Amino acid sequence: MIEGFRNFILRGNVVDLAVGVVIGAAFGGVVSSFSNGFINPLIQALTGGGPEIGGSFVVNQARFNYGAFITAVINFLLVAAILYFFVVMPLNRLNERFKREEKPAVAEPSNEEKLLAEIRDELRATRGGAGTGGSPGLS
After folding, report:
1. Crossing angle for the helix pair 12-34 and 66-83, nearest 10 degrees?
2. pLDDT, tens only, 105-130
3. Which CATH superfamily includes the segment(s) 2-101?
4. Which terminus of the chain has fewer Cβ atoms in its 10 Å neighbourhood, N or C?
């Protein structure tokens, strides 16, 4: 049981996933810091400033803070764009470059083809066994 767990942990996918989660969390902190330092002041400047980022509106005494939503969307787009352009695209190029030319597997003949080949072989054997002249079985 312990050996199976060890094999599971040491499998490449689990280690890669763990590294990805740690790097993703650290990268999320970088993006949050960037948003708080640059994006939020930019949104405040574009929407007239004030204590709230981007502003809000009230409907039936319920406050809707659309500035926080705008910041979250920008954070998501930044993370997605950076991961795509700096991780996904280079890895795809690397995989294409080192991709081995795999030969396509030889297709196994279907049951119909096998049966037809057996019939053909049997007909050839029957014709060859009867001799060259005359009909088989009329000697």
Report:
1. 130
2. 778 888 888 899 999 999 999 887 55
3. Large-conductance mechanosensitive channel, MscL; domain 1 (1.10.1200.120)
4. N
